[in-house]
């Protein structure tokens, strides 16, 4: 059920349902229609008060949430977002996406999402710690390693996961894998920080290989990336490692455009400063040596990178939802962009997706976030597996498993699109393939478990 005041959830729901309807799935198997009204209502919605003490000794109050959307495939799994925009519509859209994304990883994870309308920007470490303790005081009773396993998302990284985990452990007298994204010395998985960004790039490797019959790779490709958080940073580093040229990054205040390509040193400078909530504008002003000479960048205040990035082969939206408009989609295509893959969740507006999908006949290929960015939650699933066995796998082992998951996810989207899609373009719709493949896995489990009959 979609309520009228839930625009983001409505958008995520429409994307799934129109992908299913615009395929042969319901003609071939009408029983799956019955799943839609069931799968689109969360199993449970939890909302709670988070009252905490700021550095001035004053009380501040925020709204905390956890959406336990679907547990057919495993414990609820999905991140926590701390951002002033957080509301039920946004968390329902994220939780809904997460169900099908987690299914596409091939691992046993249900879908959930949570967070708070708390704005961490500009807060001291002590305030963030007290906020996390207050948040966990409420959340602790609803989660568990076999029930619901949250992780990070926008505004929640390693520091916050540490404070949240410590608070849980103190309250419950129990050390278990109730969160993923933990520190490497206390139950975290190697490659988890890198996983979403690396995973997007692994997925796009397969897109390039398929579209060019193995003739091309990332080498020499100009890649526009938005965002400058965890996903964007590691996507950029992997692109650079594979010989691509990263022409942009951005934050909520503006974009940086680089003619010669962002360097790993620049990414590192950005990563260090972003933990302290510095803006890109401040960072390029302060890290003068990293951003000068042939490494200088152009700063575009108040802008997203898409129309400013110049010639582009690949675009990786990796900031937040609805960060590519139809006009920007058209500009990207006019600039030569052939591959678009979302590191963010629902990075493109519905209208932008229409532009990309209509251009598929001209070899423009779009991959939705629920497929392209599933690497983050996939390595969360691997972190859960390691915690259950009380072991830690090596970097190489986890990276190889991540690659396999992304490649298999791509093949699954590709084959499913070929099987069910009605259009006859050379490149099948990964939008449809991802939605249908994710949906089918969840729907079959729901039939088996009597959730739908
Ligand atoms: N927030 C991430 C996502 O959107 C990761 C979730 C997780 O690791 O549980 O998939």
UniProtKB/TrEMBL annotation:
<dbReference type="GO" id="GO:0004354">
    <property type="term" value="F:glutamate dehydrogenase (NADP+) activity"/>
</dbReference>
<dbReference type="Pfam" id="PF02812">
    <property type="entry name" value="ELFV_dehydrog_N"/>
</dbReference>
<feature type="binding site">
    <location>
        <position position="196"/>
    </location>
    <ligand>
        <name>NAD(+)</name>
    </ligand>
</feature>
<feature type="binding site">
    <location>
        <position position="152"/>
    </location>
    <ligand>
        <name>substrate</name>
    </ligand>
</feature>
<comment type="subunit">
    <text>Homohexamer.</text>
</comment>
<feature type="binding site">
    <location>
        <position position="101"/>
    </location>
    <ligand>
        <name>substrate</name>
    </ligand>
</feature>
<dbReference type="InterPro" id="IPR006096">
    <property type="entry name" value="Glu/Leu/Phe/Val/Trp_DH_C"/>
</dbReference>
<feature type="domain" description="Glutamate/phenylalanine/leucine/valine/L-tryptophan dehydrogenase C-terminal">
    <location>
        <begin position="189"/>
        <end position="450"/>
    </location>
</feature>
<dbReference type="InterPro" id="IPR036291">
    <property type="entry name" value="NAD(P)-bd_dom_sf"/>
</dbReference>
<dbReference type="InterPro" id="IPR033922">
    <property type="entry name" value="NAD_bind_Glu_DH"/>
</dbReference>
<dbReference type="InterPro" id="IPR050724">
    <property type="entry name" value="Glu_Leu_Phe_Val_DH"/>
</dbReference>
<dbReference type="GO" id="GO:0005829">
    <property type="term" value="C:cytosol"/>
</dbReference>
<dbReference type="InterPro" id="IPR046346">
    <property type="entry name" value="Aminoacid_DH-like_N_sf"/>
</dbReference>
<feature type="binding site">
    <location>
        <position position="230"/>
    </location>
    <ligand>
        <name>NAD(+)</name>
    </ligand>
</feature>
<feature type="binding site">
    <location>
        <position position="77"/>
    </location>
    <ligand>
        <name>substrate</name>
    </ligand>
</feature>
<dbReference type="InterPro" id="IPR014362">
    <property type="entry name" value="Glu_DH"/>
</dbReference>
<keyword id="KW-0521">NADP</keyword>
<feature type="active site" description="Proton donor">
    <location>
        <position position="113"/>
    </location>
</feature>
<dbReference type="InterPro" id="IPR006095">
    <property type="entry name" value="Glu/Leu/Phe/Val/Trp_DH"/>
</dbReference>
<dbReference type="Pfam" id="PF00208">
    <property type="entry name" value="ELFV_dehydrog"/>
</dbReference>
<keyword id="KW-0520">NAD</keyword>
<feature type="site" description="Important for catalysis">
    <location>
        <position position="153"/>
    </location>
</feature>
<dbReference type="InterPro" id="IPR033524">
    <property type="entry name" value="Glu/Leu/Phe/Val_DH_AS"/>
</dbReference>
<dbReference type="InterPro" id="IPR006097">
    <property type="entry name" value="Glu/Leu/Phe/Val/Trp_DH_dimer"/>
</dbReference>
<protein>
    <recommendedName>
        <fullName>Glutamate dehydrogenase</fullName>
    </recommendedName>
</protein>
<feature type="binding site">
    <location>
        <position position="380"/>
    </location>
    <ligand>
        <name>substrate</name>
    </ligand>
</feature>
<keyword id="KW-0547">Nucleotide-binding</keyword>
<comment type="similarity">
    <text>Belongs to the Glu/Leu/Phe/Val dehydrogenases family.</text>
</comment>
<dbReference type="GO" id="GO:0006537">
    <property type="term" value="P:glutamate biosynthetic process"/>
</dbReference>
<dbReference type="GO" id="GO:0000166">
    <property type="term" value="F:nucleotide binding"/>
</dbReference>
<feature type="binding site">
    <location>
        <position position="98"/>
    </location>
    <ligand>
        <name>substrate</name>
    </ligand>
</feature>
<keyword id="KW-0560">Oxidoreductase</keyword>
């Amino acid at each position: 059920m979609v309520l009228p005041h839930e625009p983001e959830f409505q958008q995520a729901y429409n994307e799934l349902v129109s992908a299913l309807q615009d395929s042969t799935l319901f003609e071939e198997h009408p029983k799956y229609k019955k799943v839609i009204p069931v799968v689109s209502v969360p199993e449970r919605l939890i909302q709670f008060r988070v009252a905490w003490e700021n550095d001035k000794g004053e009380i501040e109050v925020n709204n905390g949430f956890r959406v336990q959307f679907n547990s057919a495939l495993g414990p609820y799994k999905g991140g926590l977002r701390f951002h002033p925009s957080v509301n039920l519509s946004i968390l329902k859209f994220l939780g809904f996406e997460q169900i099908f994304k987690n299914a596409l990883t091939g691992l046993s994870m249900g879908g959930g999402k949570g967070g708070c309308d708390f704005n961490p920007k500009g807060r001291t470490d002590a305030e963030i710690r007290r906020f996390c303790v207050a948040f966990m005081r409420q959340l602790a009773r609803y989660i568990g390693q076999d029930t619901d396993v949250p992780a990070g998302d926008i505004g929640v990284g390693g520091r916050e996961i540490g404070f949240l985990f410590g608070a849980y452990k103190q309250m419950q007298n129990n050390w278990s894998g109730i969160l993923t994204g933990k520190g490497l010395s206390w139950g975290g998985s190697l490659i988890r920080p890198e996983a979403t960004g690396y995973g997007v790039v692994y997925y796009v490797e397969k897109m390039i290989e398929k579209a060019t019959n193995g003739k091309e790779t990332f080498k020499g490709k100009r890649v526009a990336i938005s965002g400058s958080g965890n996903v964007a940073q590691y996507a950029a580093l992997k692109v650079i490692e594979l010989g691509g040229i990263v022409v942009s990054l951005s934050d909520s205040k503006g974009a940086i455009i680089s003619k010669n390509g962002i360097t790993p040193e620049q990414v590192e400078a950005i990563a260090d400063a972003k933990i302290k909530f510095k803006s890109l504008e401040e960072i390029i002003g302060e890290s003068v040596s990293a951003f000068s000479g042939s490494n200088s960048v152009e700063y575009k205040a108040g802008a997203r990178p898409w129309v400013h990035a110049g010639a582009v082969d690949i675009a990786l939206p990796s900031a937040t939802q609805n960060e590519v408009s139809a006009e920007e989609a058209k500009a990207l295509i006019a600039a030569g962009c052939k591959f678009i893959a979302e590191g963010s969740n629902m990075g493109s507006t519905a209208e932008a997706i229409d532009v990309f999908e209509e251009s598929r006949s001209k070899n423009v290929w779009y991959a939705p976030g629920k497929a392209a960015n599933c690497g983050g939650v996939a390595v969360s699933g691997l972190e859960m597996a390691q915690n259950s066995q009380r072991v830690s796998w090596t970097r190489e082992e986890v990276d190889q498993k991540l690659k396999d998951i992304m490649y298999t996810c791509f093949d699954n989207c590709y084959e499913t699109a070929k099987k069910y899609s009605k259009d006859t373009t050379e490149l099948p719709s990964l939008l449809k393939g991802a939605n249908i493949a994710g949906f089918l896995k969840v729907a079959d489990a729901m039939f088996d478990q009597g959730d739908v009959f």
